[in-house]
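Suppose a classmate hands you a notebook page containing two proteins, each written out with its sequence and a corresponding row of structure tokens. How would you begin to make sense of it? This section walks through that situation. The first entry is reproduced here exactly as it would appear on such a page.
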Amino acid sequence: MKDLFGKAILDFQTLNSPEDLITETTISEEDEMSVAYLFRSYNEMPQMEQRALQLAKGKVLDVGCGAGSHSLSLQNDRNLDVTSIDISPNAIQACALRGLKKAKVQDVMTLENEKFDTILLLMNGAGMCGRLKNIPNFLLKLKSLLNPGGQILLDSSDIIYMFDEDEDGSKWIPSQKEYYGEIVFNISYKGEKETPFDWMFIDYNTLQNAAFANGLECQLITEGEHYDYLAKLST
């Protein structure tokens, strides 16, 4: 990976002529994404993200922290002990420059010897496991990082609405897909193309079934207007 997403974040933080990211997926056409959006304050965040931050407690792990805006809010506004991790070295460098005390380059799947009261997976963070078949190991790993009474807060979307309907009203989904929420992401930045990577949007019922199958309770906290939701997983 060229870490172009992280490069855009670091460029914005250091005023190094940042540009919009160009995103494209297997189910959506090219779109421009403003990097400035990743630097939003608490008051600028969607209501669902604000709700997640309100529910955060104790020692917090922010997985896939990006530019670190959620972590900064918890650290500075709530005075919580927050560890912020991302696989992007550039993004973590930007987080440190923004004042995050515990920001480190880390894949959550290889994180060991630490326990948390709250694990955050916001901006569809659960999608990082890429494919539905990876969800059991992903959830079991997160579960192993929780203190007794701990919680996982995550948001995602049901993207079934993006598929065409047959004449009988059922959705037409390409047969090669294991699960309709699985997509491939392409990112371009300043004329460079990132290596395509797998991503996943998981509908609530599928998440709930996977949680139960792996020893986790699953609670729907709130639903948005665009097939999106916030859920809480707990032991």
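The notebook's second entry, a different protein, reads as follows.
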Amino acid sequence: MQHKIGMVRDKNTSVKEFRELVQEIAGLMVYEITRNLSLSEIQVETPVAPTTARTLAGKKLAVVPVLRAGLGMVDGILQIVPNAKVGHIGLYRNPETLEPVEYYCKLPQDIGERDVFVLDPMLATGGSAAAAISLVKERGGQKISLVCLIAAPEGIKKVHAAHPEVDIFIAAVDSHLNDHGYIVPGLGDAGDRLFGTK
């Protein structure tokens, strides 16, 4: 995973490679983010003999990318957990207040019954991530985790202050934010790099 993080950081990585790497890293993170899901035992018949196997204990999953950069993580996760439902949250930053503003939120109707993974590749100031988690809670979500590729300590602190019960899964924690709110060393604007709009 750290090898792939190094590759996504490289400014010379092409859009195609960047997309593929973000998906691959998200897919690798699934093993950690689902580690504590409950399992139950079931009986199965192998071609040789009956045996006891393990299955998810009635848990249902939802992945909720924060638009637009979170979209880059969805397919990597769905390759491992293909039955997860997908919601979407759209936020933009008000240029005057710098606060996140909701412009779109569509979640599965049974969000309260699901383990919810909010996807946002970059946890910088934490404002958008905290707002996205609040939107999921307002619509009934209870068991929520945040999944990020790279985070700054400032963003981690803000999310933990607003939502102390939310687990945050991060592939790399960087040094700090610069004067423009970018993670240092970071990887630049994940959305622009994913969609070739830089």
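A careful reader of the second entry would note: Helices lie at 2-9, 15-33, 71-78, 127-138, 153-162, 190-195.
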